[in-house]
Design goal:
Shape: globular
CATH architecture: 2-Layer Sandwich
Radius of gyration: 13 Å
Distance between the termini: 18 Å
Order of helices and strands: EHEEHHE
Largest sheet: 4 strands, antiparallel
CATH class: Alpha Beta
CATH topology: Alpha-Beta Plaits
Structural class: alpha+beta
Strand content: 25-35%
Helix content: 25-40%
Strand order of the largest sheet: 2-3-1-4
Number of helices: 3
Length: 101
């Protein structure tokens, strides 16, 4: 499994707009991308403008070739850019274990 963690800082007056947009993006990723297995959106408790996206894919190709290349992703970026402060921090992982209940 392949994991992407994306850390976004959102302008205070755009937080609610970003929540709607990222809800749309995450639900579409799960519904439309065969290799996207999980797409969690987290909001930092003590800094409401900080969001962490935790995305799980079957492999790196499902992220690099499918997720990043669908037209919807470009539409998301175009709408999100004016909401974002600075550059998102994207970190790539190979998932070794997953313990869930």
């Amino acid at each position: 499994m392949f994991v992407v963690a994306a850390d976004f800082r959102i302008k205070p007056d755009r937080i609610e707009d970003f929540k709607k947009l990222i809800d749309w993006q995450s639900s579409r990723s799960i519904a439309e991308e065969k290799g996207c297995l999980q797409f969690d959106v987290c909001q930092r408790e003590d800094e409401p403008g900080t969001f962490l996206l935790y995305e799980v894919y079957t492999d790196a190709a499902a992220f690099d070739e499918d997720h990043l290349n669908v037209p919807r992703f470009e539409a998301f970026l175009g709408r999100a850019k004016p909401m974002i402060e600075g550059d998102p921090v994207i970190t790539r992982f190979n998932r070794l274990f997953a313990n869930t209940k």
